[in-house]
Amino acid sequence: MDDLWSGLALDMLRHRVVTLVGSGGKTTTLYALARRARDAGKTVIVTTTTHIMPHPGIFVTGDGTKEALRSALDRHGIVTLGKMDRTDKMSGTGCIAVCKELSDLVLVEGDGARMHPLKVPAGHEPVIPPESDAVIAVAGLRALDGAIGRVCHRAERVAALLGKTPCDLITEEDIAAILLSPAGGRKGVRGTMAFRCLLNQADTPELQARGARIARNLEQAGVPTRVQHYVEKERGGRCWF
Asked: Which of 44, 46, 54, 105 has the highest CB neighbour number within 10 Å of its CB?
């Protein structure tokens, strides 16, 4: 896979805190960005403002003090900052400003989607740190032609935003509308933050073509967009560390 950073028109020197929102591949994308950054010699802190699956190959610490983080970065180069609060996931801890001070890059997962390919956020989400330099909204193309009530997280909000019912099917126009909406993919994105979209799950020629059409609509609206898919061994980022 070519470089995700350049594919999303992101610069590691300018976009030092990147928050991922949406559904359909956030966590895999987060770890792919982290891998590219490490390959470029950057120190990286991975964290979340909600919950995240910890990567088994990355050192995890719940201590967000400067001394502990500096020591962990010196030793490992990349650190996941969070505390286990459920069986399989962790919640964020510490201060994003401190993370930014100590590391070259901070990658943040800003909401959850419970494995659905498409979502509209609830009132309390996403949680985008004000220190964010860029926000990536992710959507899964497997939502296409699926009933809203079946393929979407917070389906009632998706239906309300689109003016549809839970039985209606998701179209290409719907995905673009959700990603561009200030109640959808752009929710909480400040004017100082770069905004990018990633259309994931383009794992067939048909989905690649449909993703390209959606991307053209997003780019016409001024949003750099990448269309891609991850193979099975890449999902969750486990083959990268």
From this structure: 46
Contact of 199 with 183, CB cutoff 8 Å: no
105 CB-near residues (< 8 Å, 6+ apart):
12, 16, 17, 18, 34, 37, 42, 43, 44, 45
Report the percentage of the chain scoring pLDDT > 90: 84
Provide mean pLDDT across the span 93-122.
92
Cα(195)–Cα(151) distance, integer angstroms: 24
- Please tell me the pTM assigned to this model: 0.95
Nearest C-alpha neighbor of 90 from the set 61, 130, 131: 61
Q: What is the pLDDT of residues 26-49, one digit of tens each?
A: 999 999 999 999 999 999 999 999
